[in-house]
Amino acid sequence: MNIALIGYGKMGKEIEKIAVSRGHQIKLIIDVNNPADLIVENLRKCDVAIEFTIPHSAVTNYNICFEAGIPVVSGTTGWLDKKEEVIKKCNGTNGTFFYASNFSLGVNLFFELNKKLTELMATRNEYNVELTEVHHIHKLDAPSGTAISLAEDIVEILPGKTSWVNDKTPAENELNIKSERRGEVPGIHTIKYESEVDFIEITHSSKSRTGLALGAVLAAEYCMGKKGVLTMKDLLNI
Q1: pLDDT tens profile 54-98
Q2: DSSP state, 98?
Q3: Contact 131, 149 (CB under 8 A)
Q4: Is position 82 annotated as part of the catalytic site?
Q5: pTM, full prediction
Q6: Which entry of 24, 135, 161, 189 is annotated as an active-site residue?
Q7: Which of 158, 216, 215, 179 minimizes the C-alpha distance to 7?
Q8: Catalytic residue among 10, 13, 136, 139
Q9: Within this chain, do residues 172 and 216 fall inside the same structural domain, yes or no?
């Protein structure tokens, strides 16, 4: 495949290494030095775009890819207030959009483990649940997209929890997400159920960005020949 990399920070460079190792070519790189090069004409020379940028530019980037008629794979978080707009644009252009809050294969298995544990705890009123996420100091959004995905699954399944809040004292019906930013931590997500006598805790810890980069390249490969909105559930056949 000929790949366009939209965003060439640490994740973009890691994706480049993985993609090249799998026999793909990087045809276009867009970063802060050449945003004017992100145009339909240049994108049409590529088979797929992989987008890891920042929330306020993500939707504009998606739309240009839709107009160019190429699939876009994105791991940018913090833009979900415009999710319906993006889905409408994707479908209206017969486009392909693959979004994941986290492309790590392990994290997506962790999503399923979280749902299973939540189902088991649904009748255990003596336990209270909280969620903690830790990331590097360069991460701009809080809570993380991964934490939001975990929280939304808990809220959907667990009786008595109807919404989540971030870094504040929660009401009885709210799930608190604690966000910490320190050092160069790639990502740690922990769900903890605690009673007066014990606690049950599950944690996923990323060792590096490599797992995220591999997942993004696998997603780009998966997009070939497909239309519509795709997720890691499609890729992993969950």
Answers
A1: 999 999 999 999 999 999 999 998 898 999 999 999 999 999 999
A2: E
A3: no
A4: no
A5: 0.80
A6: 135
A7: 216
A8: 139
A9: no
